[in-house]
Amino acid sequence: MVKSLTDCTTLHNGVEMPWFGLGVFKVEEGQEVVDSVKAAIKAGYRSIDTAAIYGNEEGVGQAIKESGVAREDLFITTKVWNADQGYESTLQAFETSLQKLGLEYLDLYLVHWPVKGKYKETWKALEKLYKDGRVRAIGVSNFQVHHLEDVLEDAEVKPMVNQVEYHPRLTQTELQVFCKEQGIQLEAWSPLMQGELLDNATLQEIGEKYNKSVAQVILRWDLQNEVVTIPKSIKEHRIVENATIFDFELAQEDMDKINALNEDRRVGPDPDNFDF
């Protein structure tokens, strides 16, 4: 049972990754991202998830510097964008991200999307960065089972994390089973389905039972399903509220009710059919 904001899952290489963090997708570079990351760190968050394509790595880096929290106490993730995939270009993209963040090393570096014909070369670059000690853990994002099988065929280092769209309308059961078997930690992006689930009657009812918001119920459900979660918010009160999920536990019947909301429905792109 995850009991606090600092509780971690241990990745298959022994690195500890917080179960809960802040995502900064669509958070504006500059004051907005600086304020939101600082508010999260102040509230006790230790994990921050960004990506090259978000265009806000510099602001995240500034917030880390201004937070007053020691670098080694934080867990920082970023991702290589599709246009930079391939071996040499990924190594370059990594240096650029590190520079923007103003960091000496990364905690987690992810392949953002499974770009056909490129992601295996990209993975080789991540293996090199990992072996060189530039990053503590490496993983992928938006990979389906067949993409993972493809990478595993000749990977020297198995991905430690797979970050995917995951929420009560998209429970990714088959993918989660596969990742568990392989020792790959599943992580949720868009855990609140970009707000679409906040007026769901079933979730509201469960929230009333525990005296919690729908968002808190969903984020607790993530953790009880052993999925790392990184909800995004730019409002300090919401950042604090999202993290107030360690003082209750959902009963199995409520977990089942939430699992039953699955419709295999995405709000984001389909990893088998995207063109960017």
UniProtKB/TrEMBL annotation:
<dbReference type="InterPro" id="IPR044500">
    <property type="entry name" value="AKR5G"/>
</dbReference>
<keyword id="KW-0560">Oxidoreductase</keyword>
<feature type="domain" description="NADP-dependent oxidoreductase">
    <location>
        <begin position="31"/>
        <end position="263"/>
    </location>
</feature>
<dbReference type="InterPro" id="IPR023210">
    <property type="entry name" value="NADP_OxRdtase_dom"/>
</dbReference>
<keyword id="KW-0521">NADP</keyword>
<dbReference type="InterPro" id="IPR036812">
    <property type="entry name" value="NAD(P)_OxRdtase_dom_sf"/>
</dbReference>
<protein>
    <submittedName>
        <fullName>Diketogulonate reductase-like aldo/keto reductase</fullName>
    </submittedName>
</protein>
<dbReference type="InterPro" id="IPR018170">
    <property type="entry name" value="Aldo/ket_reductase_CS"/>
</dbReference>
<dbReference type="InterPro" id="IPR020471">
    <property type="entry name" value="AKR"/>
</dbReference>
<dbReference type="Pfam" id="PF00248">
    <property type="entry name" value="Aldo_ket_red"/>
</dbReference>
<comment type="similarity">
    <text>Belongs to the aldo/keto reductase family.</text>
</comment>
